[in-house]
Amino acid sequence: MSNIAINQFLNAKFPNVESLNSVDTVIHEIENTVADLSNDRDTNSSIISEVDESEANKFLDTLRAYVKFPTEKALDNLNDMIDKYGNVPAITYTRELLEQKLKLIKEAEIRKEFVQILDNLNDFEIFELNDLTNIVTSHDERVKVYEKVVELRNEIDSFKKNANTATFHIDVNTSEMFEELEMKLSDLVGSELSQALKKALTEAIDSWDSEKANEKSQTLSSAALSEFGLLLGIQLKAIPNHKLVAGSPSDVTLWALDCLTDKFQKKFIYHFEGNGETNRLDKPEFAFSYIVGYLRKNVEYAKVLFAANFARCCSGKISGSFSTWFIMSTLVPLKRKFKKEISLLLETDNSHLLSHFVTEVKKFDEEIKQEFAFMPVKGQEWTGLTNDLILSRDVVWNAWLQNEKNFVNKRFEEVVNMEDAFSIDYDLVENGKTKPTKSAINLKNLLEGITINYDSLPLKFQLKFLSEVQLKLLNFYFDTLKKGVNALKSIKHVQLDGVSTLERICRIWCSSKYIIETMDKWSNELIFIELWQSLNNESKSETTFFESVINGYEKEIMSKIPNLIQSYFERQLNRTMKDYFQANNDWTLTTEKESSNDELEFVILTLSTDLRYLHTTVSSETHNSWRLLLSNTVVSYFEKNIALVNIFSPTGADKLEKDVNKVVYSLDLVKSYDHYGRLMSILDVLRTGKLDISDENYPPVDDSELEMLLMRRR
């Protein structure tokens, strides 16, 4: 008979424990099988040769006994037989039958044990817990309760161990059975019994935290400490320790520690959940300050009285120090109060109340963490009431985020629409650096205030603020500045509405430059580095969070400014050079006129004023760059409007060179090779009629230009 056939046979004939009572029938079948095997001398000659008829009967009696009285030893003996005689069907069949019966018996024992423990739990409820008054008044009765809880806990743990090591005939969910027993014990102890036990302890330690108690005693009576340890022990035995986790979302606390804060909690309810003046929706800080004040006064004193006893009862069983569990019990009424009031904050039309509440919650969390080193889960920062009351509730979080968006958007409109929004502030930064506008300063302050608002939040909430609030404001400001750039392109005057075009250009430049410098600085701050790395899954990155925004500012705004500056300088030259053109309309002079070139003084004075303005407004680097730009603009202006459009004598060429140099030297401009050098080469051709290729200071003119210049000589 194959193993599959045996299994089918067993499952059909023995589906449960009761069916094993028909074992005699099975033994009869085994006897028939053995008889058949005895007739088959070819297959079992080794057995027939070794045993006579008496031995065969003895062998069958042994198999019959193993099945009638199944034990693990009998199973071991059958395995020994198989080792000795081989896989004889009668023996292997008996072993399979025995294994099946042992499994069914074990299953029956487990179920019986489960039912027995349930009965014991019910008896505990009916007989031991029928008189809670007696338990409150009698320490001996409370000790009996503790001993009974310990006994029940041991039974449940033993059941779990037995169930985990057993193998069953059919699938049996022992985990559900174990959880049912644990739940039953937890419910029995955690309901009315726990209240009775807490009442007894509260009476035993009454007034431990009164002002006089702090001054008088550093010890408690042995009876009070005994009650404290007793209640701790009962909870640790009744409640699975894996559920007693400090800082867990379930807000679990230790009953004994709740008793220590009982009087405080009642006072808190009186002050902050009643009709008193201290219970104000707009002043959550009153309640927070009350909690902090109590902890400052009592945490250390409570440790002196109770921490050693706590350690003896809890060490190695649950995580969290005495101080941690004490603070958690103290926070219970605070959480209860604000969980009720959150709905009121959401319903009110005054959005400031919710924002103020969130600010105070975050301040409280930081105060508790910093002052009391509060870390319920070792190695993990406490997420605080901020998480419990705000972040874990989508409705509250979304309402707060929307409030912040509305506030900063309104504030942004105020920032950019102030009358002096784009006036330049000359006092904030040192000389030699770009002076910011007031709107740029205010925007920076607004953005940094937002960062402070979320820097203590978990990563995903920080990203939400950064992407939906800060980056949007930076884009709004970008749009504002870009509109300014486009408007400047259409201005054809050097002054409009009493403000010079140069100042208008610098306002855009200074605003953009200051914000770019601010973003560069932020890019090196830890909070933004971590946020960027979290998005890129890299420990190091060549790019930064603000790089794309900075690139936008530089490409669409900063890169347009030099052209605007050049256009402004050209308009200044057009405006100031009129007298010079009138006085110098003939460059074919044979002798140079005696003249002081007063016509250039106005040009020099005007441009020097512009340069002084730039010197005090933009950075030294930018000022030097724009001085070079002015130099090239001035030289190109003389080249295009005079040198390349007039007829020159050598004397006229000399005069123009002197005039150009007067402007360049008076303004202390840089003489660039490409522009100044080119003009000098042109004037040299106009003066001499030939190209001096030996002068390496100036670039040579090409052949077509040379031909044109020679035609303009006289």
Automatic annotation (TrEMBL):
Under Gene3D superfamilies, the record lists: Dsl1p vesicle tethering complex, Tip20p subunit, domain B, Dsl1p vesicle tethering complex, Tip20p subunit, domain D
State the name under which the record lists this protein.
RAD50-interacting protein 1
Can you name the source organism? Pichia membranifaciens
Segment forming the signal sequence = none
Q: Which InterPro entries match?
A: EXOC6PINT-1/Sec15/Tip20_C_dom2 (IPR042044), RINT1_Tip20 (IPR007528), Tip20p_domB (IPR042042)
Q: Name one GO biological process term.
A: retrograde vesicle-mediated transport, Golgi to endoplasmic reticulum
Q: PANTHER family from the entry?
A: RAD50-INTERACTING PROTEIN 1, RAD50-INTERACTING PROTEIN 1 RINT-1
An example GO CC term for this entry is: Dsl1/NZR complex
